[in-house]
TrEMBL record:
One of its GO terms (cellular component) is cytosol. Its cofactor is Mg(2+). CDD domains: DTBS. It catalyses: (7R,8S)-7,8-diammoniononanoate + CO2 + ATP = (4R,5S)-dethiobiotin + ADP + phosphate + 3 H(+). This is ATP-dependent dethiobiotin synthetase BioD. Substrate binds at residue 41. Homodimer. It comes from Nocardia donostiensis. It is found in: Cytoplasm.
Length: 227
């Protein structure tokens, strides 16, 4: 079983669509893919959440959500507000280990690397499972700072960064976006491995699954998704 974590430099940067693209890419190579979303917030019971998007677009076979809270807040805050117990590092790591029948397990966090999912962060979980983290970044102003903070934190914790992905690239990028795309690898020391087109999350599953494997370089796919 290969485990890859997906985090963002902030919220609303495209983590879910990137995770769906990773799933689609691995599935296209005949790998069995499972996806874990430890905590989903801002979605009521019975409503489709991020895992429904990932399964619908990317074709992941098994999805696991450990906790769901109605308020659109950090998971630990949302749990306290509704009186729910906090997720623990141990139970979350065990739930991921239980997906060992899959070739690839993708773990999507909430917000950024240090957002508390319970009594732990995604960084804590990556350290616990000794797994790499893929960082999804926004294209516009502020992304250089956010991306460098995130990658430096990973480096300080001894967690491998699997690369940077720009989660949503518009048809008409502005000057800041164009320069950021060039500068992100320079300031972070991490390769920019993919740039996803804006609006891909609204594509049909057939189109998404056909195009997603073309977004990632083959050597990277072999290293992180299909080994």
């Amino acid at each position: 079983m290969t485990v890859l974590f997906v985090t963002g430099t902030s919220t609303e940067v495209g983590k879910t669509v990137v995770t769906a693209a990773l799933a689609a890419t691995a599935c296209a190579a005949d790998r069995i893919v499972a996806v874990c979303k430890p905590a989903q917030t801002g979605v009521a019971a019975g409503e489709p959440g991020d895992l429904a998007t990932i399964a619908g677009l990317g074709g992941a076979g098994r999805t696991v959500e450990l906790a769901r809270y109605p308020d659109p807040l950090a998971p630990d805050t949302a749990a306290r507000r509704c009186g729910a117990p906090l997720l623990t590092l141990g139970e979350t790591a065990a739930a991921i280990d239980d997906l060992a029948s899959a070739d690839l397990v993708l773990v999507e966090g909430a917000g950024g690397l240090l957002v508390r999912l319970g009594d732990f962060t995604l960084l804590d979980l990556a350290v616990e499972l000794a797994a790499p983290v893929l960082v999804v970044a926004a294209p516009g102003l502020g992304t250089l700072n956010h991306s460098e903070l995130t990658t430096r934190t990973l480096r300080a914790a001894g967690v491998p960064c699997a690369g940077l992905v720009i989660g949503s690239w518009p048809e008409n990028p502005d000057l800041a976006m164009e320069t950021n795309r060039a500068d992100l690898p320079r300031v972070t020391g991490i390769d920019l491995v993919a740039t996803l087109p804006a609006g891909a999350g609204s594509w049909s599953p057939d189109r998404f699954r056909a195009e997603a494997p073309t977004w990632f370089p083959e050597p990277w796919v072999k290293r992180y998704l299909v080994r």
